[in-house]
Write a structure and sequence with these properties.
The protein is α/β, with parallel strands linked by helices. The chain has eight helices and eleven strands. It folds into two domains: 161 residues, 3-Layer(aba) Sandwich (Rossmann fold), CATH 3.40.50.300; 137 residues, Rossmann fold (3-Layer(aba) Sandwich), CATH 3.40.50.
Length: 313
């Protein structure tokens, strides 16, 4: 199994920007709107020959009772618990905030290797004093960086690799990639959580709560699989926000990565025109497609219902 490095911190300190720079692709959505990264995002990367899995998490507000913030905290807690090394990102220009101290308190209880990444330090010599107060958060490793301009990321990664090289982890093979695709709120995240036995994706009745594509590994009958839970694909006329636009692109990229696609269809609605368009994307990418009729228990059925469904598909 490859070591896991989790990126955590309060909202809008540059976690997703750092994640994207380290994996070399625009994987996490970057926006100054709080709550943009809500699920855990996993990507493999390497530094100087050392491979590891990087995890991006949502912005933490530990004392918030907002529904989405509570779920973000749950996701971040899972990431922190499974991580071997944690990159705690703070804003060097803003200084130490009360939220930083709350996150630091959570991390100190985890007994993990924590590297304090003081972000937005574009000129270390000129901004040296901006980093002093952060030592008070109580972590041994401090890395002044600028994620946006890639300043000092190499030194930070050297520290990550130093801790990783002290670990003794078995190798894990990559499994068959399955992309879960479908319209928003068709039940993709619920199916993911059911298959994995944990709350891997935020599940709610709010359409669009999975904005990013997230990967999870599991084993069934001795076979290894990687499950990709993608953002719901909407009709282009309804893709109004930039965030929704990027999520649609992310879902399409996940289809490209997959070995096989499972398309979830809401049993209450049946196969819609949008479902056909989504299936068409998988067809264009020449991906095998399995249609999963979800919410079958609440569908009004006759003895011929299943036969009619099969004929229709």
């Amino acid at each position: 199994m490859k070591p896991i490095v989790a990126i955590v911190g309060r909202p809008n300190v540059g976690k997703s920007t750092l994640f994207n720079k380290l994996v070399g692709d625009r994987v996490a959505i970057v926006d100054n709107q709080p709550g943009v990264t809500r699920d855990r995002l996993y990507r493999e990367t390497e530094w100087c020959g050392t491979e590891f899995v990087l995890v991006d998490t949502g912005g933490l507000e530990p004392r918030s009772h907002d529904f989405m913030m509570v779920n973000i905290k749950k996701q971040a807690e899972v990431a922190m618990n499974e991580a071997d090394v944690i990159l705690f990102v703070v804003d060097g220009k803003a200084g130490v905030t009360a939220l930083d101290e709350e996150v630091a308190y959570l991390l100190r209880k985890k007994n993990k290797h924590v590297i304090l990444c003081v972000n937005k330090i574009d000129n270390y010599q000129a901004q040296l004093e901006d980093t002093y107060d952060f030592w008070g958060l109580g972590f041994e490793d401090l890395a002044p960086v600028s994620a946006e301009h890639k300043v000092n990321l190499g030194d930070m990664l050297d520290t990550v690799v130093k801790h990783i090289n002290q670990l003794d982890l078995p190798e894990e093979e990559e499994g068959i990639k399955i992309a879960l695709i479908g319209r928003p709120n068709a039940g993709k995240s619920s199916l993911t959580n059911r298959l994995l036995g944990e709350e891997r994706s935020i599940v709610s009745d709010i359409a669009g709560t999975t904005r990013d594509s997230i990967d999870s590994s599991f084993v069934h009958n001795g076979e290894k699989y990687v499950l990709i839970d993608t953002a719901g694909i909407r009709r282009k006329s309804r893709v109004e926000e930039d965030l929704e636009y990027y999520s649609v692109l992310r879902a399409i990229k996940s289809i490209k990565r997959a070995d096989v696609c499972f398309m979830l269809v809401d049993g209450k609605d049946g196969l819609t025109e949008q479902d056909k368009r989504i299936a068409g994307i998988a067809h264009e990418e020449q991906k095998p497609l399995v249609i999963v009729m979800n919410k079958w228990d609440i569908v009004e059925k006759e003895t011929t219902t299943m036969h009619k469904m099969k004929e229709y598909f």
